[in-house]
Fold this protein.
Amino acid sequence: MSFHKGQKVEVFQKSNDEAWESHMDELIGRHGIITDPDTSINDPESLVEVSINGKGTFRLPQDCLRAL
């Protein structure tokens, strides 16, 4: 499954990608909306832009996200 713009997602786990930083741990369990999807399907190295409710916008690896 690929993510698309406007899709609701949850940050459900820590990513194994090197782009994951320790401060991102506080995002686990939060919901957001995809604002800039990547065309690669579930490629953890392809970051997608997610607007997290109450936290701001982040570029996150796809392996930490799941669709709601």
Remarks:
- The chain has a mean pLDDT of 87.
- The first strand starts at residue 8 and ends at 11.
- DSSP finds no helices and five strands in the chain.
